[in-house]
Amino acid sequence: PPVQIMFCTLNTHKADMDKLLGAQIGLEDFIFAHIKGQRKEVEVLKTDDVLGLTITDNGTGCAFIKRIKEGSLMDQTKMICVGDHIETINGKNVSNCRHYEVAKMLKDLEKGQMFKLELIEPMKAFEKLEPRSKGGTLPEAKISRGRETLRLRTKGPATVEEMPSEVEEKAIKKVDELLETYMGIRDIELAATMVEAGRDKKNPDEFAVALDETLGDFAFPDEFVFDVWGAIGDAKQGRL
C-alpha cells in the first residue's frame, strides 16, 4: 500500500540519500520503493542546540532523516540512522507533519533535557544481491545535457521536460544554501522546484505569486523570497 512507502531511490536499492527520487525522473530510470520496517525507540539527552540532522519528507506524511552530520549528537546515537522515519517526538505523533515542522520541533526541544523519538527504519532488502553481470550498469541518475525527464507535479499532469540547464543548477545550489540559512534545512528538490517557479518570471512579484501557487504551505517570508529571486538573477547573469 502507498502508505507503507517511506521514500524512493533511483537506480539503487540502497537507502542512498544522494539518489532520492525527486520531482524529475529520467525516462530510463529504475525506481526502488523503500517501505516501513522495524520500529524502534530511543532516548536522547540534548546536550547541544544543534542535533546534526537534516530532515526531508516524501510529501505524503512521512518525514525521514536525510543526513546525519559527522561528530554531531545524533551521530553518536548509533540507533538513529539515515532513512529512519520520525514517527513521534516525546509521544507526539508527527507522521502528518512536513519536514520543516519536524525540524523546528526538534530545534525547539529544551537543551539539557532528555527526549524520546519513536522511529521506523526502512525494511532491509536485496542486501546480498549483486548484479548478474559486471558488464552492464544501470543508467546514471544524474543531470546530463539534452536528457529528457518526466516531471511530476502536485498540481496538474506530469510532463516530459528537459533537465535543468547549467545556469539553473548553479541557482539550485545557491537556493539550497539559502534554505539552510533561513529555515535550517537543506532540500535540493525543494530548491529545484523554486528555481523552476522563477524560470519565466520577469520580476519578484510574479515570482512570489508563482511560489505561493506551488509552495504555499511553506509561507516563505518576503525577505527570503527576494533573496531567492536575487540568486536566480545572479545565476542568469553569470555571477554565481
Automatic annotation (TrEMBL):
PROSITE patterns assigned to the protein according to its UniProt record, in alphabetical order: PDZ
Protein's UniProt name: GIPC1 protein
Similarity-based family: Belongs to the GIPC family.
Pfam family, one: PDZ
CDD domains, A to Z: GH2_GIPC, PDZ_GIPC
Taxonomic superkingdom: Eukaryota
InterPro entries membership: GH2_GIPC, GIPC1-3_GH1, GIPC1/2/3, PDZ, PDZ_sf
Domain PDZ: 41-108
PANTHER family assigned to the protein according to its UniProt record, in alphabetical order: PDZ DOMAIN-CONTAINING PROTEIN GIPC2 (PTHR12259:SF3), RGS-GAIP INTERACTING PROTEIN GIPC (PTHR12259)
Signal peptide stretch: none
SUPFAM superfamilies: PDZ domain-like
Lineage: Eukaryota, Metazoa, Chordata, Craniata, Vertebrata
